[in-house]
Amino acid sequence: MSDFTSDFWHYYVAGLTLVSIVACLILLWISGTTKAATHADNTTGHVWDGDLQEMNNPLPKWWVYLFVITVVFSLAYGVLYPMFGKYQGVLGWTSRGQHTAEVEKMQQAIAPIYAKFNDMKPEDLAGDAQAMAIGERLFMNNCAQCHGSDARGARSFPNLTDGDWLWGGDAQTIKTTITEGRMGVMPPMAAAVGSAEDVRNLAHYVLSLSGSPSDSIRAALGKDKFGACAACHGMDGKGNTALGAPNLTDGIWLHGWGEEAVIRAINNGFTNQMPAQNALLNEAQIHVLSGYVWGLSNRPAN
User: Fold this and answer.
1) Which of 10, 78, 192, 219 has its CA 20 to 30 A from that of 68?
2) Which residues, listed in sequence order, are joined to residue 183 by a DSSP beta bridge?
3) Is the dihedral of CA 154, 157, 161, 162 positive or negative?
4) Domains and CATH numbers, the chain
5) Which residue range or ranges hold the Cytochrome c domain (predicted)?
């Protein structure tokens, strides 16, 4: 891999670019000075459609001048901006730098809008109409792609309106979740449970915890196998917000409901990730968004 990061490629790309630009001028000079063999009437002898003859006239001056200007412009551009290999250009411009500057400019422009909300608690923001209007737009732009425009989620994407929270639903925890993201992992558990029949029995026991339709005999046989799951979900199956382990007793099924869905979860496990939003949103925006999300499943504070 070091061959692809050596200075050779810098010189190769820079040289190839420069030669290509200079070659355009050489081509223009050759085309303007080379005389083609023509007849006395300045035709080349090529005829189309019976009477359409090719003439050997020089290129129009305006076209030649425009071509030269284009070449000069490209050379000037290469001096000012990065174009020749890893040469950064006199101006030191980078797309990253421009993006950073534009983001900072935008942050400064919106700062006064968020200033009034900085000292408010997320719970209080849920009762402020302006904050909620802003929070809704933030949600639509950054969260709705996964959780839906109504925030009710879909399979494998949590419903944010029902009060069932994998990592905790208090305002500060929601803010931490939005800021840092979450990674939820359930490993495949079939090997720890036993045979395929043991897995099926365990699935019925898990279903029975929430009062879902299940085979009571299989559930009784699968109860002892639940020990393999208790480390995360607890012996009572009510989950653990410190680990993001779901409550298995409330009848809410993030990854699908029913015998086959539970068996699939035990056999294959799951990996769910919510990306951190602090790369896209500043602290003030996350603060308002936290209040909006908290308000989806709670009464406004005022």
Assistant:
1) 10
2) 273
3) positive
4) 2-80 (no CATH), 103-181+275-296 (1.10.760.10), 185-274 (1.10.760.10)
5) 130-210, 217-297
Nearest to 70 by CA among 124, 107, 27, 125: 27
Largest CA distance in the chain: 107
Closest CA to 117 of 102, 106, 127, 103: 127
Is the Cβ–Cβ distance between 287 and 117 less than 8 Å? yes
Q: How many CB atoms lie within 10 A of CB 216?
A: 10
Mean pLDDT, 10 residues at a time, over the chain (302 residues)?
Answer: 72 92 92 77 81 82 94 94 90 92 92 93 92 96 96 94 93 96 95 95 96 95 94 94 94 92 95 93 95 87 47
Contacts of 37 (CB under 8 A, 6+ apart): 44
Q: Do 273 and 181 form a contact (C-beta atoms < 8 A)?
A: yes
Cβ neighbours around 17 below 10 Å, total: 16
Which two three-digit tokens encode residue 268?
């294959």
Nearest C-alpha neighbor of 199 from the set 254, 271, 259, 270: 259
Tokens 């990065």: give the residue.
82
> DSSP for 112-157?
HHHHTTTTS-HHHHTT-HHHHHHHHHHHHHHTHHHH-TTS--BTTB
